[in-house]
């Protein structure tokens, strides 16, 4: 028989449950148990050293991500008291970083393309003092153009890290070029010649379907920085804080871009773009059907891995749109930076510093194939034997006669997106280049004012 | 009783009401997520009226809502009606129609990019068999939105299930009575089946409308909003502003306008539903 005393009342149940939850919560919130004697030494190899955890976010998954993990492991081997927590944040890394920052829990380190968008909004730690006192980081070892990506308002906010060679070259399908009887010793030096080559390579069937695309213009359109270096006019001046989209050079750039849209029809270009799933390099299936295209240092490797084995590709400078007879070369990179809010800035700097070493870059390269553009590391690799054509993206850094880096533009993402859309609108003939550029100029100037005011 | 539901109440207040109110506040600020928000009053809302890209996104979204929702409901009803007949392999067919719902949207999007490819895609090859040269589906500003509407029909499996349940709930006696009165098959569908499934139609319309107003993933993956912004839908533009262009205040104002629009449409639908929705058991 159940008695009143034995019955579990609702009140008692709630009391017990509440107490249990409180104890569990208190346990979760309590500081970690005090380390036992000897723990420090075992864990870190440095008696008394405090164990530090660093979150490091980057874009790459797959092999690229594995390279980052390997680099982090190597760093921890050298610094046992620092545990790295590498994380593939994917293509939405900026979004995730912003959300984490707003939530008050940003990662310690993040690898993005450039510093200015975050630095201009107070989200980064300046590293000039660290660089100055470092015995490891040698700025002379970096390509000057790569260092442009770490600048904002006269200070440096990170270090170039990962995938830093050239980001703009003209690739040609040598099989198609030879079939068309084009002379590879007389490559196009201006856009008129490029059109002539595209025309000779193009093959369109009776139904209007493009069987061979003479020139895929999308690569050069990818970043406004590409047109900056091709036209010899920076779209953003990081010293005077002014945009130059409302210039003749950019109006002409849009006309050049439109002329390639007009070759086969804007819809075909857009369709081709959609079919490539956002990648500027022709997909494996399309690689044999494109005569000329533009791309960065990843292009030879991707083609070697994905395109048919019998296809051969050659690489050269994109023509000089400014008509000055120069060899334009866009030297993009990725950049590692420390977020404002990191509780371990010194340790984060140690990692940043480590990314400048050949040992780190060798480990990342061995695992992922990523090639960092520091001078000593490039010298340590035999570029000509890695992938046919890759050496162009190395020698281009020194042989290019107009070598520019990424604009230190705090509105780089907006400029990129809007300019890309404008190119398409002009290509389709729905927007006048001058008017479109004027609107873009005003929009970016308004956004820049907000950054500068803040 | 309150103690039992308090975890839910706390979660609701902390993870729903608080962010909701916060986003309302942000809509009156200039906020880049990295620096403290700055109050700017109605500026964001005023700027929206002058933003041609925003107005374009509104137009694109309305197009998608107007075409995809009724077409989706109609298609789901027809499929459910057919699946409700005494067909062989009926169970297998029902499962097949539901499969797209459980396929990740990214995989579906890639699949449809292949189907829509104008050079070697399945759709244009099928059209070529009957002598029609298909358009550049995703490459043409004229055809890009219809393409996404067509693709949306692939995802009607959920509504099909709801219609199927509703159809099976229609009393047999009503059909028998209609037949005794001399109603042919079309009249039985029009005067018996459709009135009896109007609650399911209302439900499908309502959920379809809300989902269509918020359409995002297809365009994000398949077209990136192009060509020439022809598939830049409302939420896509909102997302870009909030998380790529550092304009969370602006994006918040967009979100609240969308919320208002969805509420208005929902209220209108409910208000008018009394005239055309029949709930069994009503007097």
The structural class of chain B is: mainly alpha
What is the topology, as strand order, of the major beta sheet of chain A? 2-1-3-15-6
Oligomer kind? heterodimer
Average predicted confidence as pLDDT of chain B: 91
Count of helical stretches of chain A: 21
Rough outline of chain B: globular
Low-confidence stretches of chain B: none
| CATH class categorisation of one domain in chain B | Mainly Alpha
Number of strands of chain B: 2
Overall CATH architecture of one domain in chain B: Orthogonal Bundle
Secondary structure topology:
The complex is a heterodimer of chains A (454) and B (283).
Chain A: H1 10-29, H2 39-44, E1 52-58, H3 62-78, E2 82-88, H4 93-102, E3 109-112, H5 116-119, H6 128-133, H7 144-147, E4 151-152, E5 155-156, E6 158-160, E7 169-173, H8 174-179, H9 191-201, E8 203-204, E9 210-216, H10 218-221, H11 224-231, E10 236-237, E11 242-243, H12 248-264, H13 266-275, E12 290-295, H14 298-306, E13 313-316, E14 328-330, E15 335-338, H15 345-354, H16 358-368, H17 375-380, H18 383-386, H19 390-399, E16 402-404, H20 412-427, H21 433-453
Parallel strand pairs in A: 1-2, 1-3, 9-12, 14-16
Antiparallel strand pairs in A: 3-15, 4-5, 6-15, 7-12, 7-13, 8-9, 10-11
Helix pairs in contact in A: 3-16, 12-13, 12-20, 20-21
Chain B: H1 2-26, E1 29-30, E2 38-39, H2 43-50, H3 52-83, H4 90-102, H5 105-116, H6 122-129, H7 144-153, H8 157-168, H9 172-180, H10 185-196, H11 198-213, H12 217-222, H13 234-243, H14 248-276
Antiparallel strand pairs in B: 1-2
């Amino acid at each position: 028989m159940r008695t009143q005393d034995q019955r579990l009342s609702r009140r008692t149940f709630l009391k017990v449950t509440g107490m249990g939850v409180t104890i569990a919560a208190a346990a979760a919130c309590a500081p970690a148990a005090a380390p036992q004697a000897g723990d420090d030494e075992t864990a870190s190899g440095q008696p008394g050293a405090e164990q530090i955890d660093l979150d490091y976010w980057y874009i790459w998954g797959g092999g690229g991500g594995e390279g980052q993990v390997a680099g982090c492991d190597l760093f921890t081997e050298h610094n046992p008291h620092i545990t790295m927590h590498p994380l593939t944040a994917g293509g939405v890394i900026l979004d995730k970083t912003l959300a984490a920052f707003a939530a008050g829990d940003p990662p310690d380190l993040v690898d993005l393309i450039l510093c200015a968008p975050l630095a201009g909004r107070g989200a980064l730690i300046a590293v000039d003092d660290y660089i100055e006192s470092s015995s490891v980081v040698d700025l002379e070892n970096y390509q000057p153009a790569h260092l442009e990506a770490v600048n904002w308002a006269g200070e440096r906010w990170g270090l170039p890290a990962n995938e830093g060679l050239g980001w703009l070259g003209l690739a040609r399908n040598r099989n198609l070029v030879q079939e068309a009887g084009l002379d590879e010793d007389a490559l196009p030096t201006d856009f008129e010649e490029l059109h002539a080559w595209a025309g000779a390579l193009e093959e369109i069937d009776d139904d209007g379907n493009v069987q061979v695309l003479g020139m895929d213009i999308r690569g050069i359109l990818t970043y406004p920085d590409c047109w900056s270096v091709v036209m010899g006019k920076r779209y953003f001046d990081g010293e005077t804080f002014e945009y130059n989209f409302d210039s003749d050079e950019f109006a002409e750039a849009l006309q050049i871009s439109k002329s390639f849209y007009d070759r086969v029809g804007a819809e075909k270009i857009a369709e081709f773009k959609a079919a490539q799933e956002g990648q500027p390099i022709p997909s494996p299936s399309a690689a044999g059907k494109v005569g000329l295209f533009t791309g960065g240092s990843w292009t030879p490797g991707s083609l070697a891995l994905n395109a048919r084995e019998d296809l051969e590709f050659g690489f050269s400078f994109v023509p000089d749109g400014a008509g000055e007879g120069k060899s334009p070369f866009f030297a993009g990179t990725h950049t590692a930076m420390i977020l404002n809010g990191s509780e371990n800035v010194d340790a984060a700097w140690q990692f940043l510093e480590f990314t400048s070493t050949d040992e780190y870059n060798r480990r990342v390269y061995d695992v992922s194939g990523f090639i960092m553009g520091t001078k000593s590391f490039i010298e340590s690799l035999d570029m000509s034997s890695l992938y046919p054509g890759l050496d162009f993206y190395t020698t281009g850094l020194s042989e290019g006669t107009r070598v520019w880096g990424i604009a230190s533009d705090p509105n780089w993402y907006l400029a990129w997106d809007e300019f890309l859309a404008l190119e398409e609108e002009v290509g389709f003939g729905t927007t006048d280049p001058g008017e479109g550029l004027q609107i873009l100029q005003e929009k970016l100037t308004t956004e820049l004012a907000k950054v500068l005011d803040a | 009783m309150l103690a039992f539901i308090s975890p839910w109440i706390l979660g609701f207040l902390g993870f729903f009401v608080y962010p909701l109110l916060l986003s309302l506040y942000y809509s009156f600020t200039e906020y880049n997520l990295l620096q403290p928000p700055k109050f700017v009053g109605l500026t964001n809302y005023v700027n929206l009226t002058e933003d041609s890209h925003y107005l374009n996104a509104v137009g694109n979204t309305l197009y998608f809502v107007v075409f995809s929702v009724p077409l989706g409901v109609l298609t789901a009803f027809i499929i459910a009606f057919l699946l409700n007949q005494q067909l062989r392999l009926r169970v297998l067919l029902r499962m097949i129609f539901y499969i797209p719902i459980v396929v990740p949207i990214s995989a579906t999007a890639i699949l449809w990019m292949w189907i829509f490819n104008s050079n070697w895609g399945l759709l244009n090859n099928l059209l070529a068999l009957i002598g029609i040269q298909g358009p550049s589906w995703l490459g043409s500003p004229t055809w890009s939105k219809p393409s996404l509407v067509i693709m949306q029909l692939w995802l009607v499996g959920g509504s099909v299930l709801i219609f199927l349940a509703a159809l099976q709930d229609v009393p047999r006696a009503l059909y028998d009575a209609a037949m005794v009165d001399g109603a042919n098959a079309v009249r039985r569908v029009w005067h018996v089946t459709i009135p009896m499934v109007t609650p399911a139609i209302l439900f499908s319309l309502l959920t379809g409308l809300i989902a269509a107003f918020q359409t995002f993933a297809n365009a994000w993956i398949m077209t990136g909003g192009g060509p020439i912004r022809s598939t830049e839908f409302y939420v896509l533009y909102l997302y870009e502003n909030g998380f790529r262009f550092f304009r969370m205040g602006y994006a918040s104002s967009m979100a609240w306008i969308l919320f208002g629009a969805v509420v208005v449409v929902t209220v209108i639908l409910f208000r008018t539903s009394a005239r055309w929705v029949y709930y069994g058991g009503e007097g």
